Amino acid sequence: MSNRGVRLLLLASVFTIATCGLIYELLAGTIASYLLGDSVTQFSTVIGVYLFAMGVGSWLSRYVERNLAGVFIQVEFLIALFGGSAAACLFAVFPHVNSFRVPLYAIVFVVGSLVGLEVPLLLRLLSAQLHLKDLISKVFTFDYIGALLASLLFPLFLVPYCGVAQTGFLFGILNAVVGLIALWALEIPNARALRIYGIGVLAFLVAGLFFSERIVAWSEAAAYGEDIIYTRSTPYQRITLTRHSDDIRLYLNGNLQFSSRDEYRYHEALIHPGLARLRNARHVLVLGGGDGLAVREILRYPQIESVTLVDLDPAMPRLFSTQEILTRLNAGAFSSPKVRVVNSDAFAWLKQNRRVFDFIVADFPDPSNFSVGKLYTTAFYARAQAALAPDGAMVIQCTSPFIARKSFWCVDETLHASGFVTEPYHVYVPSFGEWGFILASHRALAGEPEFPAGLRYLDASSFAELFIFPPDMVKVPADANRLNNQALVRYFETEWGRYLRQ
Amino acid sequence: MKTTRRQFLATAGGGAMALLAGCGNSPRVFPGRIVGASAAAGHRLRDGAFPAPDETLDAEVVVIGGGIAGLAAARRLDGRRDLLLVELEQETGGNAACGRNAVSAYPWGAHYVPLPNEESTEVIALFEELGIIRGKDPRGLPIYDEEALCSDPMERLLDCGRWQEGFLPQLGVTPGERRQYDAFFARMEAFRRTPGAFAIPLDLGSPYPELDRITMAAWMNANGWDAAPLRWYVDYCCRDDYGAGIEHVSAWAGVHYFASRRGRAANAERDSVVTWPEGNGWLAQKLSAPLAARIRRGCIVWNIEAAGKYTFVDCFDLARERSVRLRARGAVCAAPRFIAQRIVRGLAPAQGLEYSPWMVANVTLDSPPVGPGAPLAWDNVSRRSRSLGYVVATHQNLNPVQRETVLTHYWPLDAQSPADERRRAVARTHDEWCGLIAEDLEETHPGVTGQIRNIDVWLWGHGMIRPVPGFIWGEARRRMREPHGMVFFAHSDMSGLSLFEEAYTRGCQAADALLARL
Question: Are residue B267 and residue B304 in the same domain, yes or no?
Fold first, then answer.
């Protein structure tokens, strides 16, 4: 190849490295603000670490003495590998690490130093052919044009149409291809080994591009109207976590489970009206509730000796016991030695259970289909009854008594048909609306509640209000829900269908 | 929904595979096999001679056949007399046979019992003993075990491209057709409310000779009930219970289907049924479990004869290839009549016996089928199909998330005469049956073939007695009920209707009659 050709190729490399480098930086910043929120902080720190790492890389370049071109290409492949897969890796490790910032800054630092190493090497490669003033002028021109291109492409095209992980792989591939072309054009000792290495990196990135799930599909994110920070399809459901500034929300199959801004209202109302009146309660059973938020409330009572949580999907308790943001929400409920998690279907588990519990929490999804509807039947409550201590109580989340009034009172009727005495109540949760619960026990609960310290919503006066049903929510007649009539699912479909169509 | 790249690749790959398969013109081969009643062993009764017994064993009473009637008789006799039950198959249960694979238990035949009527006292007593009936409410209505009652939704019909709840066609039905619905069901309700009209066991009811003489189709014609959706529905019901449609069964049997059910429950609607993943196999296993030590399996009875005060029962042990003579004081022959009249010496053959052949397949799927409209039910029928559709074996499972499932696909072979259908059925290979079954399911659920993991097929050559005109209240059936010496008979074909309640009650009655004579 002519000198002119080599020169052009090297300048093209500057351009690609600049574009790719900035893309990697923007990706890291985007992911950080996606997953951790507070985008100003995230972008500043990521850019800071990245620029500092570039400085470290530049400084390290002085130690490269021989085989400049070979090292240059080697580094190019490393950038392709780390930079290209960084986004996918960060998403993958997010649910499994206690502190997400460690892998985040580590990867930003590695990519930054490699890019920082690359530019001085290029300058030195070109220094034989150009005067210093031309060299500096050309290299930095291409560098800044590349940066402009990247900063425009990224928000306008790449994130909306390619998705974050795919963008990473795409630019990694571009990086690797440029490296391979340079390898072909330059005279480099040991080119064969380098070529195999480069092709390996390229193959890995292409595989990544095709087989990594589209981690953040734009359409999905748009449907939520919030940033999706985690989403995964388990065999049982689709778990989605979103963030909107400081508000974390959990969705299961697209249905809101909680908003971190007001979930305390829901969970305090779920647990304390019952448990605060059971002074002798020692053993608690939680059915559903794999987010650990109900367990957090239960653990406020020092006398509780054991909490058994039965959740069908092992992914839920795992996510909520490892991820830092989430363990902060549930106050590390799953790391308490009192808590035992069982991954099983509640119905099947109750069938084989021989233990007796003082307090049972049935925190299932709403009865929107026949499968979930079975967990609200007389057959199910008969099994729960067998697991409930004589002076214990069970609490059931039972959808909105405002929107689905008949559904709510259907659960009440079902509990009566199963031989329970009930205390229906409700609370206002801003992100949900009016929400209903029913306390069920073998005989009426006596005594005043003794609330633990630290509650944000419940006290003696708000407790008394829970049990007052205004005229638009008072009892209406409804059939008991049985396996063989699934009355509840039919009510629920009609009532929520009517509400959502409005 | 947005297609992900992986889905696209999978679809494209699948399409390419389909194209390749199309080029070779070779339909997909499904794993599985033909299982089922030992036709070959049974045919030895017709064709082959058996070796003379080289051993004689004493038993006070012998029950021949371990279907529901035989098990009921043995259950009644057990503990009262020294008893032996001889069964041809490796498992007892007869039409209530069942199977099991890694996904679910499933039925091979009878798969539910409607809420028993008050007069079905034997069945009610059994249900109480087995805990299916848990007690009575203040009104005296039986309280059923909720987990045994068929979970909602029970039935859905694919008609006009959409699934609807229930089997009676509702979409596109004209006001005129609806008036026929009303008239037909009003008539059935009137029969149902007439005391002593239609009962279970049916011998407690009334003959209505004018209904017994003609076919259900002819009777509907005479009443002017020609609406296509009504005819389809009644035909479906008859095929479901009798293995033959309204052109074949008597009007008495057709009306019995609609007018005989008066069972009530404290905690279920009138049309409820009890069922289990393995169908009536659950009941058969509960009946046979306490009898285990008294049951000889894999033995074919080839001769029953009276000599002096003894009744000899000669049976051939298929595994040991030798015959054994059982010397008893009496016997209950609970084999179907077409067998009984070959093995009971001196028994005159009954005239006009017709048995409906059936094919039942258990199809294991990776995921439950869905479709537009009503969600998956227990029993799912397509109006366009000649099969009876499928029952979901995992329907009674209580776990909320079901992925793989087993569908029990029922198909009465009634397009031609029973003899012709039987010949055609045994001539078909497993692959040919799978082709027919997959085609039928594919028509109902486009794309379902790709979800099929396994297809097992059971052929019932003589699946059930067919209540043709004149049979139920005719001379032949009356004579079938009479004992032959100390051999008492028990089988649902003596009722002309293949119902659990009939079989079970016949078994109890035969045992009681035998006990009275011992």
Answer: no
What is the interface size between A and B, counted as CB pairs within 8 Å?
74
pLDDT tens sequence across A433-481: 999 999 999 999 988 999 999 999 999 999 999 999 999 999 999 999 9
> What is the value of ipTM here, to two decimals?
0.81
* CA pseudo-torsion sign B364, B426, B459, B371: positive
Q: Given A291, A311, A358, A363, which residue is catalytic?
A: A363
Peptide bond into B195 cis (omega under 30): no
- Collapse the DSSP code of A397 into the 3-class scheme (helix H, G, I; strand E, B; otherwise coil) and give the result: strand
Report pLDDT for B10. 39
Residue B121, domain member (yes or no)? no
Q: Is residue B242 domain-shared with residue B390, that is, in the same domain?
A: no
CA distance B187 to B365: 42
Q: What is the C-alpha to C-alpha distance for residues B63 and B292, in angstroms, rounded to an integer?
A: 13
Q: Give Cβ neighbours of residue A55 (< 8 Å, ≥ 6 apart).
A: A116
Q: Is residue B155 located within the same domain as residue B184?
A: yes
- Tell me whether residues A483 and B149 touch, CB distance under 8 A: yes
Q: How far is CA A502 from CA A13, A401, A441, B67, in A?
A: 58, 17, 37, 58
Q: Residue B223 domain-assigned?
A: yes
| Same domain membership, residue B321 and residue B216 | no
What single-letter DSSP state applies at residue A250? Answer: E
pLDDT in tens, A393-444: 999 999 999 999 999 999 999 999 999 999 999 999 999 899 999 999 999 9
| Domain-located, residue B87 | yes
**Angle (deg, nearest 10), helices A39-60 and A101-127:** 40
B56-58: strand order across its sheet: B56-58, B322-328, B310-317, B299-307
Asked whether residue A218 carries a pLDDT value surpassing 50, the answer given is no
Task: Give the one of A210, A345, A348 whose C-beta lies nearest to B5's C-beta.
Answer: A210
Determine which of A25-39, A68-82, A338-352 has the lowest per-residue pLDDT on average. A25-39
Higher pLDDT, A458 or A31: A458
| B175 and B262 in a common domain | yes
* Residues ≥6 apart with Cβ < 8 Å to B464: B95, B242, B243, B355, B356, B358, B492, B493, B498
Q: How many domains does one find in chain B?
A: 3
B147 to A378: CB separation less than 8 angstroms, yes or no? no
Give yes or no for a contact between A261 and A291, defined as CB atoms under 8 angstroms apart.
no
Q: Is B2 in Cβ contact with A236 (below 8 Å)? A: no
Of the candidates B5, B152, B401, the beta carbon closest to that of A484 is on B152
Q: Are residues B194 and B297 in the same domain?
A: no
Domain presence at residue B234: yes
Q: Give B28's contacts (C-beta < 8 A, 6+ positions apart).
A: B21, B438, B449
Can you list the domains of chain A with their CATH numbers? 3-213 (1.20.1250), 262-501 (3.40.50.150)
User: Which CATH number do you get for residue B67?
Assistant: 3.50.50.60
Domain membership of residue B374 as a residue range? 28-37+100-108+354-465
pLDDT > 90? residue B135: yes
The reply to whether residue A482 touches residue B375, judged by beta carbons under 8 angstroms, is no
Are residues A407 and A492 in contact, defined by beta-carbon separation less than 8 angstroms? yes
User: Which domain-ending residue is among B274, B298, B319?
Assistant: B274
Long-range residue pairs from A452-455, CB within 8 A, at least 24 positions apart, any chain: A452/A272, A452/A276, A452/A300, A452/A301, A453/A300, A454/A300, A455/A264, A455/A268, A455/A272, A455/A300
Do β-strands B355-365 and B452-465 pair in parallel, antiparallel, or remain unpaired?
A: antiparallel
The dihedrals phi and psi of A129, each to the nearest 5 degrees, come to -105, -20
**Alpha helices (H) in B170-224, listed in sequence order:** 175-193, 209-213, 216-222
Q: Which member of B6, B267, B400 has the closest CB to residue A374? A: B400
Distance CA B428, CA B209 (A): 40
Residue pLDDT, tens place only, B45-77 = 877 689 999 999 999 999 999 999 999 999 999
